[in-house]
Give the backbone structure.
Amino acid sequence: MHPDYDHLQKAAKDHLWMHFTRHSTYDTSDVPIIVRGEGAYIYDAQGKRYLDGLGGLFVSQLGHGRTELADAAAAQAKELAFHPLWSYAHPNAILLAERIAGYAPGDLNRVFFSSGGGESVESAWKLAKNFFKLTGKPMKHKVISRSIAYHGTTQGALSITGLPPLKQQFEPLVPSTFRVPNTNIYRAHETTGGLLDGTDPEAFGRWAADQIAIAIENEGPDTVAAVFLEPVQNAGGCFPPPPGYFARVREICDEYDVLLVSDEVICAFGRLGHMFGAERYGYQPDIITCAKGITSGYAPLGAMIASDRLMEPFLHGAESFAHGYTFGGHPVSTAVAMANLDIFENEHVLEHVRDHEGAFRSTLERLLDLPIVGDVRGDGYFYGIELVKDKGTKETFDEAESEKLLRGFLSKALYDEGLYCRADDRGDPVIQLSPPLICDQTHFDEMEQMLRTVLDKAATLL
Ligand SMILES: Cc1ncc(COP(=O)(O)O)c(C=O)c1O
């Protein structure tokens, strides 16, 4: 037990405003307080151990307690704690930009740092608008994104987000964003209005990509600046792209001169076994947005990666990209990112994910024998498990059942069982898994066992 436990509980309830949190939950129970981490595990203030099945929040690629990363942060803070990138540079920002340019696919070689994912998304939209204004297409400003996709909470990023319940209370948001269907092939029949049943993934991928062309036509190609897509869409529970999807999206973007932004805030830095998710699926984005795993969470950092072509209009005379963040590319965060990427290389983290992802998938697929598990989907170390009321018909839960099952039972029961992960109903009800990339079969088995125990119980509640 933490020596200051009672004080921490009271102060948490009296003063700490937690994010996306129903505070009333803690009227009758303690706030879970996490005090330490080691490898793939975290420990609460009462000393109980949990498997970190979500990598914090899709962040902790290398797991917890890596002293090299803590040491890199301390050394940099001693050397130069802070200087902004506003007309000045510092060595780690320079070296990290060079390094990321080396990893990034194709011609992506210009790195604009931010302090997190939402800021990277904002930066990409602002760059898209500004680029077209400077290159003779000033009307191009609109953004297309996918239904149920999450792209952040700042007003621009939230406007791009495809989750109406997260947006309504903040309307009016930034205008000019439009949604197209996502690639949930499990629900292809509903998504395509009965046109396709998902048994032909290529046909479904073609259909889903073509919806982007239709949206561009509907809005007017002269007004559309960018399409924001995750390699694997997280919200809704891991929708990988069907075969051919991104190749067709690339064709559409080229045809209409629309920038393809790959929002890799989750999918970069090994989550899918590659530095960038675009590499895994073989497509070339015009911009990549990233954050989270770039430092494995040992310091906050984000980045927008663009090309010479997109930066060129800003390189002459009085022109500049009038955009920035005080802490974007912070010296400590960039030092940590360099040390993080050193470990990626020295310990062959990407290879580890590629070698073990098949085992992760097949271990999770064992859960398909449970009547409540409708679908297990994902790639790399990034999975969603969709829960259904009736497996045969794929019938999902109504609002009240979802509330009882996910909020009333699952999240807490999984945590009590020793698995930190997320039960999410932003689309159909899913359990999200994104463990540290150091995990192996022992961790997969542990996850499967804990999920099985809890999902067995959940099925009896219905
Ligand atoms: C795809 C995607 N984009 C953007 C964001 C926003 O990132 P942040 O919370 O760092 O602002 C997230 C956060 O999870 C995300 O998953």
